[in-house]
Design brief:
With 655 residues, this protein is of the alpha+beta class. The protein has 20 helices and 24 strands.
Length: 655
């Protein structure tokens, strides 16, 4: 049987991709066979050689070495060579030092009432950078801010705007020493604009007045305004005394500024670093001899009369005859030291101490004192007074034409006779030059030609030539008050001397000082000197009573009911300070009361009255009466009740 072979299995191969069929009508194309690349000879292998790293490392090492060397050198310079300089610079920038201003002392009257004091105030400042268009986002921010501030500060808007536009500055001063009320108004206005600036209110977030700032300072104020301004003076913009007592006692009033030094960071004090410094020492309080009430009465009286008489100026001085203390010193016109911008420069001093003028007949009391003290005459000595008297190169007369007067020496003073005074003083020496020397010595003893002792700024010593230099006319005019000059204070001191029994006490304005510790230190006792005897002084007082009490006296308008009053009138030709020639008159009145037990001396003078009377008895007599009466009541001086001596003023010539 034939053998049968088993059927072979076909092992399926990999599936071949289907060949695309040719499109209809096109013969089928056989796929092209892939080309094999042409055979190339094998490339020869290249060898890469790396550079040596040593040069690079050396270069890097050298660079690092140089850098480190620079750092080391700089470090040595900072820490060794310039260490002290850098330490000092760091110290300077780290630590801030500020001056602590001392509080200025008060000036009070004799009762402790403040006449000058210091109060809190503010300098209004600004940062101009915050008003630039870049910072404020407003083109005309300075003008807008200035318009808001001008009514509050009392400044011109244009001036404020100019300061707010200060280029390249972070600080400008808008107004000095403004009251807390002014700064509060500005703060309220700033709050209003702060609210407006909030985005919720439609603002841009920038406060228009955000650059307005303040610095706390102190301001000198004078509560009574013009009262005693001539005595008190004023302070300048730096807070230093520039006139009057403010200048005279500036060192005592100013105190001593202190200092504080502290560490700061970012402009703030570092609490943990501590601080060091010296505290400020407040100035001392000055207590004056002035009585505010008497000062007020004197100032009112002289101001009213200067205005009525249309005079250039006037002064009233009130002095305690027993102590020499000045109770009042009033000038008209005056000034308000709170607002110097409105003050008249000619009225800013103390004319009662600084004006030198010819006193006229109030000076005759010194001539009479010399005559009595030298024993050349007595109050009852008879003096025949003609209508005219020829002496030297002049013909002298009294203030009125008259028939021949038959006067006692007392009557010469009561009627204020120039001719009678010339005749009386001629008896002081065997010759006129000798009489001149004697009179000169008494004038000097009374203080003419010398400072009063107050040491007041600008005080005049008066003018009194030496007797050998007196001209032919001066040797006859000086006895009745022409040809010499003095101040109102010096004239008052003459009458204080007579009232005090012939002992001159240098006038005083300061009773004492009260230091920061509250301890009161009295002022040194004033110097005293005897000018005439007590007997002469008492006799002069009785003679001066005749001026006021006698019917023929020139001072009747100065009489005070219930009191014995001693006084003397004066009407002098006045030297015009601008023209240097005699023009107008100086009217004056001086005296003391009670005449028998003197307590108060009062002097009044008015320069160049141009309306109404120019006689001293007529326009200054009433002022004397008003001020003296007020002072006597203020000091509780009771009338003595005694009767005046009433010395005779005339005599009957023998046939």
């Amino acid at each position: 049987m034939p053998s049968q072979e088993p059927p072979r299995r076909r092992v399926p191969g990999p599936a071949r991709p289907a060949r695309p069929r040719p499109a209809a009508g096109r013969p089928a194309q056989r796929p092209a066979q892939a080309r094999r690349p042409a055979s190339r000879p094998p490339a020869k292998a290249r060898t890469i050689r790396l550079g040596s790293p040593k040069p690079r490392l050396r270069l890097v090492s050298l660079g690092l070495t140089l850098v480190m060397l620079v750092f080391v050198v700089r470090l040595l310079q900072v820490q060794a060579v310039d260490a002290s300089a850098y330490a000092a610079k760091a110290e300077k920038h780290r630590y801030q030092e500020y001056t602590l201003s001392a509080d200025r002392g008060e000036i009070t009257d004799r009762s402790g009432v403040a006449l000058a004091a210091s109060v809190d105030a503010y300098d209004i400042t600004a940062d101009p950078k915050l008003f630039t268009p870049e910072d404020s986002k407003i083109r005309d921010a300075p003008e807008q801010a200035a318009a808001l501030l001008a009514p509050i500060l009392g400044k011109e808007p244009a001036d404020l705007a100019k300061k707010l536009r200060t280029p390249k500055s972070r600080y400008t001063l808008l107004a000095r020493k403004q009251t807390p009320q002014v700064w509060n108004q500005i703060k309220d206005l700033k709050k209003v604009y702060e609210q407006k600036a909030k985005p919720a209110n439609g603002g841009n977030g920038i406060n228009l007045l955000g650059g307005i700032l303040s610095e706390p300072v102190t301001k000198r104020v004078y509560p009574n305004r013009e009262l005693a301004a001539g005595i008190l003076g004023y302070v300048n913009a730096e807070g230093r005394g520039a006139g009057g007592v403010e200048s005279m006692l500036d060192t005592d009033l100013a105190g001593k500024d202190g200092k504080i030094r502290f560490a700061q960071s970012g402009g703030r004090m570092v609490p943990t670093a501590g601080s060091q410094g010296t505290p400020a020492v407040p100035g001392s309080d000055i207590e004056l001899t002035i009585d505010r009430d008497i000062q007020w009465a004197a100032q009112q009286a002289i101001t009213d009369q200067v205005r009525k008489s249309k005079a250039d100026r006037g002064y009233v001085v009130v002095q305690d005859t027993r102590t020499g203390e000045v109770l009042a010193m009033a000038n008209a016109p005056g000034f308000d030291p709170n607002d110097l911008s409105q003050a008249n420069a000619t009225a800013m001093g103390n004319a009662a101490l600084q004006d030198a003028y010819e006193p006229g007949s109030t000076s005759k009391v010194m001539s009479m004192a010399a005559v009595l003290e030298e024993g050349a005459a007595t109050p009852g000595t008879r003096v025949t007074v003609p209508n005219r008297l020829h002496r030297g190169d002049r013909l002298f007369s009294d203030d009125i034409d008259h028939i021949t007067w038959y006067l006692t020496l007392n009557g010469v003073l009561a009627r204020s006779s120039n001719i009678g005074t010339i005749l009386a003083t001629g008896q002081l020496g065997k010759t006129q030059p000798e009489a001149n020397r004697v009179l000169y010595s008494y004038l000097r003893k009374f203080g003419v030609g010398s400072p009063t002792g107050l040491d007041f700024p600008g005080e005049t010593p008066g003018i009194l030539a030496k007797p050998q230099d007196w001209s032919t006319s001066q040797q006859y005019t000086i006895p009745f008050g022409q040809g010499l000059s003095l101040s109102a204070m010096q004239a008052t001191s003459v009458y204080q001397t007579i009232a005090n029994g012939g002992v001159r006490i240098e006038p005083t304005l300061v009773r004492g000082t009260k230091g920061p510790d509250g301890r009161f230190t009295p002022a040194p006792a004033p110097k005293e000197s005897r000018v005439v005897s007590e007997k002469t002084a008492k006799t002069l007082g009785q003679m001066l009573e005749s001026v006021v009490d006698d019917e023929e006296g020139t001072g009747n308008k100065a009489a005070i009911p219930g009191y014995r009053v001693a006084g003397k009138t004066g009407t002098a030709n006045r030297v015009d300070p601008e023209l240097g020639v005699y023009k107008g008159y100086t009217a004056s009145f001086a005296g003391f009361a009670p005449a028998d037990e003197p307590r108060i001396a009062v002097y009044c003078a008015i320069q160049n009255p141009t309306k109404g009377s120019y006689f001293g008895g007529q326009i200054c007599g009433p002022i004397y009466k008003k001020v003296m009466e007020f002072a006597l009541k203020t000091l509780h001086v009771a009338p003595t009740g005694s009767e005046p001596a009433r010395l005779p003023t005339t005599f009957k010539p023998t046939p």
